[in-house]
Design goal:
2 helices, globular, six-stranded antiparallel beta sheet, mainly beta, seven-stranded mixed beta sheet, 220 residues, Jelly Rolls
């Protein structure tokens, strides 16, 4: 009788382990807001909203928020020295103080990350690691100013545009990023790893809408 009970118990356990029915559905992958880019969000901070609104044009809407978009650079473009883009903003972040960590918001920001791809590659959802240059549309600092990022190591900030004089207008930018890198880091740069954009107002809790043409690396 005892052996029969043990046998029935084993049958019951095996019955529970058999794969009856359909397997649980896989968790769907979250689509990035802009195809070809990945978004990086920051802990406990609402995300800036990004969307492609025309061919090659990305809209960013920040309402007390912050997040970034990044795009991996094609291998053939890693050594190109020039970066070109256009941008347009609705307004500057009036209460921003770019040299303070707790007030460093910007209506427009284009980021260049230098370095080599690590063995595991670039990971979606994470910011690429490497020496970084940020070109910002500042609120108060003069155009042409260069300074250390107040909240990040190994990051230099160039004021590409400043103030409200060109608000609502498309503004063309072209930078020799290899020359800029050598000027601030005092060494020759490695290849470009990734390009990023960011519109953020998380410290100021203000509202900004910005438009970016997708930055393009060029030989000249």
């Amino acid at each position: 009788m005892r052996m029969l009970a043990i046998s029935l118990g084993l049958v019951f356990i095996l019955f529970q382990l058999l794969p009856f029915g359909s397997p649980p559905p896989e968790k769907p992958e979250v689509e990035p807001p802009v195809k070809g880019w990945w978004m990086v969000s920051y802990f406990a901070v609402p995300a800036t909203q990004y969307a492609r609104v025309a061919k090659g044009v990305i809209k960013a809407e920040s309402r007390g928020s912050r997040s970034s978009l990044f795009k991996k650079v094609a291998e053939k473009e890693e050594a190109f020295p020039y970066l070109s883009w256009k941008w347009k903003i609705s307004n500057v972040v009036r209460s921003a103080i770019e040299t303070r960590k707790d007030r460093f918001d910007a209506a427009g920001r284009v980021m260049v990350i230098f370095g080599k791809v690590e063995p595991f590659g670039l990971l979606d959802g994470q910011e690429p690691s490497g020496p970084k240059i940020e070109y910002i549309w500042a609120s108060h600092l003069p155009k042409g100013k260069i300074f250390d990022h107040p909240g990040e190591k190994n990051c230099k900030v160039f004021v590409a545009e400043s103030g409200e004089g060109k608000v609502g207008q498309w503004v063309d930018e072209k930078r020799n990023i290899r020359k800029d890198f050598k000027e601030v880091f005092k060494i020759e740069p490695a290849g470009v790893l990734a390009i990023g954009i960011q519109t953020d107002t998380d410290h100021s809790n203000e509202m900004v809408t910005a438009y970016y043409s997708e930055p393009v690396l060029k030989k000249k």
